[in-house]
């Protein structure tokens, strides 16, 4: 069904784009803006189609398109690995700029997490890109507001509950990974709704909406044990390090979680402070300690 929606969307978006390209009229910039939006969405559609067409392998587990919509900036839920049968299930919550047009990057991240979990010893893993919310599309002012996280928390909570309800056989070990603004989404959900998960990983967040890990709720985890299931990371050369936009940074030891701190986000020693902007997007590159640790946490193992 969702694959049919994907094909229909490609046909519809392509037809509108080609029509606008063929037309020649001045509109004060609306046409150019609409063409940019159409091309962006088509890039996302093509990225999803390409991933769906890849033969299953260790590096590219079988994909499942769970939700697809072009409404607004687009909404997508795609899993690599079957979440109904996998022993370990990871829900990845993306951050600022998440939209249909950014699916190629998101898919690369969930594939990398799945491979890392397999290398850590996970017998079967499903990693889901949960892009079913309206994410901020600018650093300033949108990413400085909590309203996007507040608008997402109920849906994320229901989705995680659904993963438990539809899982077959023994209960899976479930992990939520919130990246950048996605860390706030995961944190606000854990605070106000509760995360139906065994572990949560906050990656490069600007605070997660609470002052201490014990204010977070993980279903099935005792309140006095939550800190042992809250994992955090932010690299020294990440430009958001030290910022307290949505509360204290979860990587601060006083926050009460388990922090693992790579000196630099990338394993490449040439990525120094001058490359700090790139550092924020490098946590999931092959060889990064963050990626290794997320794989271990997904497999139910402690981080290094």
From TrEMBL:
<dbReference type="Pfam" id="PF06259">
    <property type="entry name" value="Abhydrolase_8"/>
</dbReference>
<dbReference type="GO" id="GO:0016787">
    <property type="term" value="F:hydrolase activity"/>
</dbReference>
<keyword id="KW-0378">Hydrolase</keyword>
<protein>
    <submittedName>
        <fullName>Alpha/beta hydrolase</fullName>
    </submittedName>
</protein>
<dbReference type="InterPro" id="IPR029058">
    <property type="entry name" value="AB_hydrolase_fold"/>
</dbReference>
<dbReference type="InterPro" id="IPR010427">
    <property type="entry name" value="DUF1023"/>
</dbReference>
<feature type="domain" description="DUF1023">
    <location>
        <begin position="72"/>
        <end position="219"/>
    </location>
</feature>
